């Protein structure tokens, strides 16, 4: 009866629609009318009607919007709360007229052309703008219709096109670790690009402005403004940053930093400017502004502000440690941090049904404890399934946004995401607000961490699945930031290649890595945090010979760390690296715990362990630090 009622063309009539919404659905579902009304009205009506054309189409597709509201109710205890959180974000204002730019202070940037400013649109308004502007496609997922966008040839950040202005005699000039990551450019180049960006926006009829916050702790929270030319870009930052709760929070907004994203434009004078290409992502810390040219990738917005937090917070008084890690908290208030480069399991392992997620990528550690920088998550979608990563899979619903994910048509012409097709890129992504995760930690702040876990995907098969680190070893492995690339991930790679990224996030560190390591050491000693190295890579041989650690094995190692059993285990010392390996741990094959035992050819293991140890030592030479004594001995 429910399906027949929804499929009826009479649903288009207001009277019938009202009866279905206010009478039939509340009784059928046994929940409050207000909840059903929110769910019913959340779906774009034009999409709703196109989906519900015939009784047969309803019976064929369990993903139709209104039917899916019922499925959500069954599958997710947080479905109602998600709708409430969606509705609670409503600070939108559309400013029109010849003085629109002046009213929102864009004229102070030199932008004075647009007579329509869309300021902090609601999720529903953003979706309507994206559809009306033709900025992407709507895909049907198991948990709701989701907007999708293709960012063109840039499916990831463009690190060689990121620049920081070297303002001579300034604080940033003195403190930034100038290198191939923190590339310097001149104030004159920035001024030319800034003028180009603002002049471009001044030719536009409309612009999207988003005012938000970075950092959940008010003591060090930063105000950020984004100026975009497309709705989907505002959608991305709305998902990812901390959204204002009231209009009063953003009245007379004075940002600590502004990003002007002119992604459709390029720097034609890049050679004259001494840059590497027509793409330019340029930050001027003293002028509190950045400009983006030539790349549509959403992550440039997110990681640009993260890099700035990595600059600001260690220089705060007292100093705050910014971290490229995920974090969760147990029922007893015990906090855990998960550091790791891409592909090591940072997002997957922090999503734990027994624990509440604080955040999946960017955090700070101050005198109060750990806090999230963001208001959302940005997860990889490669080979995503509900079985392997249920929290992320279920978070892909209306208001999430898919980037560069292959879409295929089903027999009815409905677009469906194919997470296993990586012909576009292996870096397909989904952004979504944090409240899409059922078990998220609403305060977004928690106590000092009991356990700090460094995740590595060791393709050489040398590192144990779990090992306990001394404070000195923790500093060494934190600065090393090791994982490995394997054959097939990049052209020309035929055997494992070590990838060392300082502090598990070298691309985002404006200061020297030892500044962050010293802060971590100080906080670990003050609060008695334990440090662990967990290998999610290979055992029994290197990539191509051995086998990848199962998620069950890795999860058992994590559980042992979090429940305290790993700390109480008996240990043996690893001969190559010197850290402690548990002799036994519940749920883990004892032959895996000591990696040498898992290799058939012991001599080959010894040779490979010596080779990897040498790579660690070689990489650490550039730091010329006494911390090197805590590394492997060659």
Task: Describe the model.
The protein has 634 residues and is α/β, with parallel strands linked by helices. The protein is 32% helix and 22% strand. It has 22 helices and 31 strands. It has a 9-stranded mixed β-sheet with strand order 1-2-7-8-9-11-10-5-6, sandwiched between helices. Strands 12, 13, 14, 15, 16, 22, 23, 24 and 27 form a 9-stranded mixed β-sheet that branches. Strand 8 (222-228), helix 12 and strand 9 (257-262) form a beta-alpha-beta unit. Helix 2 crosses helix 3 (33-42), helix 9 packs antiparallel against helix 12 (231-240) and helix 17 (471-480) runs antiparallel to helix 18. The longest helix is centred in the C-terminal third of the chain and has 19 residues, at 602-620. The chain is globular.
Q: What keywords describe this structure?
A:
single chain; 634 residues; alpha/beta; nine-stranded mixed beta sheet; 22 helices
Secondary-structure blueprint of this entry?
Elements lengths: L1 H6 L6 H16 L3 H10 L2 H7 L3 H6 L4 H11 L3 H10 L4 E4 L3 H4 L12 E4 L3 H11 L3 E5 L2 E6 L12 E4 L5 H5 L7 E3 L1 H16 L3 E9 L7 E7 L2 H10 L16 E6 L7 H4 L6 E5 L4 E5 L5 H14 L8 E9 L5 E5 L6 H5 L5 E4 L2 E5 L2 E4 L3 E5 L9 H6 L5 E3 L3 E3 L5 E3 L11 E5 L11 E2 L2 E8 L9 E4 L1 H10 L1 E4 L11 E4 L12 H15 L2 E6 L2 E2 L7 E2 L2 H13 L7 E3 L6 E3 L7 H4 L1 H4 L3 H19 L14
Parallel strand pairs: 2-7, 4-18, 5-6, 5-10, 8-9, 9-11, 13-23, 23-27
Antiparallel strand pairs: 1-2, 3-4, 7-8, 10-11, 12-13, 12-14, 12-15, 15-16, 16-22, 17-21, 18-21, 19-20, 24-27, 25-26, 28-29, 30-31
């Amino acid at each position: 009866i429910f399906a027949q009622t929804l499929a009826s063309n009479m649903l288009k009539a207001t009277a019938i629609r009202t009866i279905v919404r206010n009478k039939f659905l509340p009784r059928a579902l046994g929940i409050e009318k207000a909840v059903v009304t929110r769910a019913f009205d959340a779906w774009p009506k034009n999409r709703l009607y196109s989906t519900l054309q015939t009784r047969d189409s309803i019976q064929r597709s369990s993903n139709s919007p209104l039917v899916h509201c019922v499925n959500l109710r069954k599958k997710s205890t947080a479905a109602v709360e998600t709708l409430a959180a969606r509705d609670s974000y409503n600070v939108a204002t559309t400013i029109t007229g010849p003085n629109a730019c002046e009213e929102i202070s864009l004229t102070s940037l030199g932008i004075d052309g647009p007579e329509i400013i869309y300021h902090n649109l609601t999720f529903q308004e953003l979706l309507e703008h994206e559809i009306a502007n033709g900025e992407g496609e709507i895909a049907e997922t198991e948990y709701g219709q989701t907007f999708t966008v293709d960012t063109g040839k840039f499916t990831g950040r463009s690190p060689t096109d990121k620049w920081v202005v070297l303002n001579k005699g300034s604080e940033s000039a003195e403190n930034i670790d100038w290198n191939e990551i923190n590339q310097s450019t001149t104030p004159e180049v920035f001024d030319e690009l800034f003028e180009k960006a603002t002049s471009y926006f001044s030719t536009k009829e409309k612009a999207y402005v988003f005012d938000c916050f970075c950092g959940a702790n008010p003591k060090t929270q930063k105000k950020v403004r984004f100026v975009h030319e497309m709705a989907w870009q505002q959608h991305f930052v709305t998902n990812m940053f901390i959204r204002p709760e009231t209009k009063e929070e953003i009245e007379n907004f004075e940002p600590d930093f502004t990003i002007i994203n002119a992604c459709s434009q390029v720097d034609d004078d890049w050679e004259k400017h001494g840059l590497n290409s027509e793409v330019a992502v340029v930050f001027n810390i003293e002028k509190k502004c950045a400009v983006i040219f030539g790349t549509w990738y959403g992550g440039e917005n997110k990681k640009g502000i993260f890099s700035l937090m990595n600059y600001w917070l260690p220089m705060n008084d007292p100093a705050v440690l910014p971290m490229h890690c995920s974090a969760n908290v147990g029922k007893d208030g015990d906090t855990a941090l998960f550091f790791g480069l891409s592909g090591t399991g940072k997002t997957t392992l922090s999503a734990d049904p027994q624990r509440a997620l604080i955040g999946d990528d960017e955090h700070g550690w101050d005198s109060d404890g750990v806090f999230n920088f963001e208001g959302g998550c940005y997860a990889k979608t490669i080979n995503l399934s509900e079985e392997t990563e249920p929290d992320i899979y279920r978070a892909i619903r209306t208001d999430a946004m898919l980037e560069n994910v292959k879409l295929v048509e089903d027999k009815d012409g409905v677009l469906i995401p194919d997470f296993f097709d990586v012909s576009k890129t292996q870096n397909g992504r989904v952004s979504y607000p944090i409240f899409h995760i059922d078990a998220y930690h609403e305060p977004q702040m928690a106590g000092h961490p009991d356990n700090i876990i460094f995740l590595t995907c060791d393709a050489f098969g040398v590192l144990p699945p779990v090992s306990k680190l001394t404070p000195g070893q923790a500093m060494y492995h934190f600065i090393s930031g090791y994982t490995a690339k394997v054959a097939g991930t990049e052209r020309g790679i035929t055997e494992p290649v070590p990838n060392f990224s300082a502090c598990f996030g070298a691309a985002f560190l404006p200061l020297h890595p030892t500044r962050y390591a010293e802060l971590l050491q100080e906080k670990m000693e003050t609060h008695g945090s334990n440090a662990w190295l967990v290998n999610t890579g290979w055992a029994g041989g290197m990539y191509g010979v051995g086998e990848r650690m199962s998620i069950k094995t890795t999860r058992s190692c994590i559980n042992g760390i979090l429940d305290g059993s790993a700390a109480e285990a008996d240990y043996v010392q690893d001969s190559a690296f010197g850290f402690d390996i548990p002799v036994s741990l519940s749920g883990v094959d004892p032959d895996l715990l000591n990696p040498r035992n898992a290799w058939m050819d012991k001599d080959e293991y010894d040779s490979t362990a010596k080779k990897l140890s040498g790579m660690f030592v070689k990489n650490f030479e550039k730091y010329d630090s006494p911390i090197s004594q805590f590394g492997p001995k060659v």
